[in-house]
Amino acid sequence: MNARTDAALLQNDNNMSYHLNNSHLDALEEETIFILREVAAAFERPTLLFSGGKDSLVMLKCAEKAFGAGRIPYPLLMIDTGHNFPEVTDFRDFRAKELGAELIVRSVEDSMARGTVRLSHPGESRNVHQSVTLLEAIEEFRFDALIGGARRDEEKARAKERIFSHRDSFGQWQPKAQRPELWTLFNTRLQPNEHFRVFPISNWTELDVWQYIDRENIALPSIYYTHKRQVVDKKGLLMPVTELTPPRDGDVVETRDVRFRTVGDITCTAPVESTAATPAEIVIETLAADVSERGATRMDDKTSDASMEKRKKDGYF
Fold first, then answer.
1. Is the pTM of this model over 0.70?
2. CATH number 3.40.50.620 is the correct assignment for the domain at 3-207+306-313
3. How far apart are CA 221 and CA 211, in angstroms?
4. pLDDT, tens digit (0-9, with 9 covering 90-100), for 125-171
5. Which among 72, 170, 218, 289 has most CB atoms closer than 10 A?
């Protein structure tokens, strides 16, 4: 019986607890550590994408186990939209310093100053424009592998992607030209100016992530847990009221108990109503959730003219 089944059975008893089958998480952790070590062995200039969000913190924990504290053999890279939640960027800086890791931050605002990113209007989400800044960082540091925290359960385009996802010299993903990955044998051959995106937690789910956070006692930014926040209900999505997202005429501002299932650009990331204050309580909520993480919280997935697959072809995470 796996961890998901154990948790579901105990949740049905209405005792708000669950049993964690460590063998399931042990297998996922072992696979992730193997991939992280494979990247270190196969590439000359890899980097680990680190936003300070829960998935990248899980990867960082696995990297710490793979190599030892203060010995992670590649830098951390953050592409900052300038519209990130301060609780997350502050925690990003704290965790990198605590671990003794090199942190590289490149900003969409710098790309805007160079003229390589142009917004259609000042209030436009900068989330999709991270692709440009990321490709500029790849060129600047000549990275040949970028380790990301994307999971296949997040979105249908990500479900198509290999663990070692090849990118051409333009940084583009070609979904019909992916390399086979049989028996965890990874083809890491590159031509000049090409690179790989590597996703060590591809086979994890949102539930797995929260169970691992619970088991390993991984610290997270406070906004992942319940807190009171002013929001506006936008057809089922709760828009946080901030300086970047003020209420419009006719909006009804309410104060609700919320938490964030995922974090990103403030202008397109919505919290969910929740009173969960611990990882164990979030595991119980996740078991009962009938909407995916991104489907429940990411406005750009619902409103963007570009599908996730199109964005990934253009160089997105």
1. yes
2. yes
3. 17
4. 888 889 999 999 999 999 999 999 999 888 777 778 899 999 998 88
5. 72
